[in-house]
Amino acid sequence: MGSALDRKLLVVTGKGGTGKTTIAAAIGMLAASRGQRTIVVEVGEENRLPSLFGIAAPRPGVPTQLQERLSSISIDPDRALLEWLQVLGGRVPGRVLASSGTFQYFAAAAPGAKELVTMVKIWQLTRGEGRRERGGGYDLVVLDAPATGHALGMLGSPRTFGAIARVGPIAGQTRQLQELLESPSRSAYLAVALGTEMAVTEALELQDGLRTRLGRGLEAVVVNALVPRRFSAAEMQRIAALGDGAHGGRAPDAHAPAERQAVTDSAVQAARAVHDRSRLQHNQLARLRRRSFDVVGVPYVWGASLDLAAVAGIARRLERSF
């Protein structure tokens, strides 16, 4: 998997709520630290990366330099579709086109059009189009894609429209975009999951969807927020024996003060909860490895919020695998 960062496009997706944006940001930081000019792309109204770096968020479609060799951009699919239709419609003002029945009709009658023009903009970034700085384009575009189902729809849009638009500018762009998505030397796909049954199942579904739509597979699965295994089975038996009858199978110590016994019981419950969670997570890791996935584990980050220092720590953790 060491070549994943050597591609032009790295797509990061998975079940919602698994930390995709965090992992995409960490990958961007890692690539930039290796000297690669990198841009992380967010889709929709999300524009979270500038605030993570303490920078005011610009309007959608405007690249923002986060640090040396690392930028971000937010692509709004509605805005992207409007801009594309403006190109087709000549000098028709955007506000007129946006309020017209033609635009609304087209957006409703052409499902997947927003996804396609969004992917075309991402393809343009891989070619360096729209980059105002000197020195060429980006070495790596990291796409912080939507959740699995929507991401597969985006990735499948070029094939859908390619069967319809066979001539013209959009046809040529669609063909080149499809080549990028299908090329193992130019693009890679990464799933982000938690160590839960639902998240891992969605990663497996993502693998199947990529095979069907693009003839591709996942480069790896990043399993986020892993709790370490702190106790063996024998240690857990000794810990449980410290508790009351509900935990250790015996009556509480009559000579122990009630408050001390309550603290002991709480500690036993906490230890058991962490142990059970870790065991369930590692069962899901084993489930992925049985399918021959390259699995990358990221430890749970303890803290009230995930700040830039924490993301940098995750980047250092990923460096061992990328």
How would you summarize this macromolecular structure in one to three sentences?
With 322 residues, this protein is an alpha/beta fold. Helices cover 50% and strands 15% of the residues. The radius of gyration is 24 Å and the shape is elongated.
User: How many domain modules?
Assistant: 2
Q: Write down the secondary-structure element order.
A: EHEHEEHHHHEHHEHEHHHEH
Q: Which percent bin holds the helix content?
A: 40-55%
CATH superfamily of the largest domain: P-loop containing nucleotide triphosphate hydrolases
Q: What's the CATH topology label of the largest domain?
A: Rossmann fold
Radius of gyration: 24 Å
For the record, the CATH class of the largest domain is: Alpha Beta
C-alpha end-to-end distance: 6 Å
Model regions low in confidence, pLDDT < 50 over at least 5 residues: 245-249
Strand order, largest beta sheet:
3-4-2-5-1-6-7-8
Question: Per the principal axes of the C-alpha atoms, what is the gross shape?
Answer: elongated
The computed structural class is alpha/beta
Mean pLDDT: 84
Give the strand content. 5-15%
Largest sheet: 8 strands, mixed
Query: How many β-strand stretches?
Result: 8
